Amino acid sequence: MRISLARILVVEDDEVMRSFVVNSLRRLGIQSIETASDGVSALRAMIVFKPDLVLTDVHMKPMDGIEFVQQLRTHSSPMVKNMRVIFMSADASTATLETTMPLGTFGYIVKPPRLETLQAKIELALR
After folding, report:
1. What's the distance, Cα to Cα, between the start and end of the chain in Å?
2. CATH top-level class for 3-125?
3. pTM for this structure?
4. Which spans in 1-127 are helix H?
5. Is the pLDDT of residue 101 over 90?
């Protein structure tokens, strides 16, 4: 899939970072972008928007990115259950990485994401 045709859901609770990521995606030519501010609203958006890829923060309230991805992985819909996910967080601690990586994701990006890193991870996930 060409990156410019991707439908991407950005799950980020910080409004400034959410705007930064959306603007970065637009710079990569991606136009079909939906946003959510936490895992609960992201679950609802998944069904309506039907993204090809989810970029999600790790630390959010009331449902964080880890719980959100765990919910995806146990969902009854194959489209939701097998969703491609990339975590994004300013937290690059070993404990967080050890918790997130076994969840079947396509990577972990330290925020704020560099445009080249974002593009490389997205292209890898969309293969």
Report:
1. 7
2. alpha beta
3. 0.95
4. 15-27, 39-49, 65-73, 78-81, 94-100, 115-125
5. no
